[in-house]
Amino acid sequence: MHQKRRLELIIERMALERAGRILEAAGLTGYTVISAMSGYGGGVRWSRGSDISATQDMVVVISIGSTERVDAALTQLHDLLDDHIGVLNVATVDVMRPELF
Amino acid sequence: MDLSLALSTILSPVVLFFVLGLGAALARSEMSIPEAFAKGLAIYLMMSIGLKGGVEMSHSAITSQVAMVFGAGLILSFTLPLLAFAFLRLSSKMDRIDAAAAAAHYGSISVVTFVAATQAVKYSGLESSGYLVAVAAVMETPAIITALLLAQRGGAGTKAPVAGSERGELMREVFLNASVVVLVGSLAIGWITGEAGMTRIAPFFVDPFQGVLCLFLLDMGLSAGRGLRRGWRQLDAGAVSFGIYMPLVSAGLAALFALGIGMPAGDAALLITLAASASYIAVPAAMRLALPKAQPSVYLTLSLGITFPFNLTFGLPIYIYLAELVSR
Questions:
Q1: Nearest by CB to A53, which of B230, B234, B280?
Q2: Is residue A2 within a helix (H) or strand (E), and if so which, with residue range?
């Protein structure tokens, strides 16, 4: 097994494209987006599809990459989260096929 | 409009299904309409009303009065946010960015309120023109520009662009959002194909319209109720009262335009409703991109949780009455 960094970003759906551009610009080779069902934060409960504009929907973005590439994305993602609703965490993970990342 | 006519508007199946959804959500019922199905219903309604408007427009020429109504719609959409912003800053504790974002909603329009108004106008025995659908489309976006200018005056828009943002993304959201594309596109298709084209699709787009509207408003009632239940703590008394008096102020201003232009009562009622309605589809999405620091729970609760239910239940009879007054 090979060690890589796993980045997990929970962010409002409206900012997804912005987050995607940051990950792509940092050289991360891929990411997966999962639609979040519901949650609580900032004193407000939210759930998917609760308003027709879908502006309160949240998504989870998961990406795995080298430390250099993840670090390159983190500065920009920090700035993004300065404006948009979301949380971010990074962990070290083991992967089977390092050439993919 | 006498009391029985006002009651018949409030007690129509469309409004009562909305009230059912609202009540169920406030009572914490778990009832829900599948998300994708609700979105499909919204597209169906916009297509249907766009097609009908386009067909009606294909029958009539663009007169100077029609041009003036378009002008009135544009002026209202650009200027109502200025008024809304001033009222919010005076009567609530909202900061500049939240007030600017909320103000944009009150200059833009709610397509669903407009659709319900067309039905209420019909129940009232009045006739309305198809071109008002195009006026609705025109009024969707100018308010967003005014709100951005208001926010920028306070320094909110002068900082560096948001990370990951791209040139033109806001314009895409503003001018190519689903409601503008479907409404304008259907209007054009209705106008091009005319009555002959409509006859072929009437069994799908005309006959089931009322039933689909009932289903959709049941879902909107659920959304409004859940939004209100979750977000009411975000609003102070001044903001809540704004959600009710602002549509009445906007309606009054639109009535003055209708009077000046000499609009027939049915058309005047729709223009007044457009001015009084507040967006909860196109503008919230644009505000998340343009003013991400504004709190969505504040402006969505205000427009969807307070103004929308008010307009649908008490507002529509008032607007029709006002239209009849200024059209005599």
A1: B280
A2: strand A2-12
Show residues of chain A in contact with B289, CB under 8 Å: 14
Contacts of A45 in chain B (CB under 8 A): 230
For the stretch B185-202, pLDDT in tens is: 999 999 999 999 999 999
The number of distinct structural domains making up chain B is 1
pLDDT above 70 for B3: no
Which residues span the domain enclosing B75? 3-23+33-156+166-326
The distance in angstroms from the start CA to the end CA of chain A is 13
Give chain A positions within 8 Å (CB) of B166. 17-18, 21
* Confidence band for B27, pLDDT divided at 50, 70 and 90: very high
State pTM to two decimals.
Answer: 0.87
- Classify residue B161: in a domain, yes or no: no
Under 8 Å CB pairs connecting chains A and B tally to: 85
Q: Would you say the ipTM is above 0.90?
A: no
| Three-class SS state of B238 | helix
Distance CA B9, CA B15 (A): 8
Evaluate whether B136 touches B70 at the Cβ level (below 8 Å).
no
> Which one of 3.40.50.150, 3.40.50.1400, 3.30.70.120, 3.40.50.2000 gives the CATH number of domain A2-100?
3.30.70.120
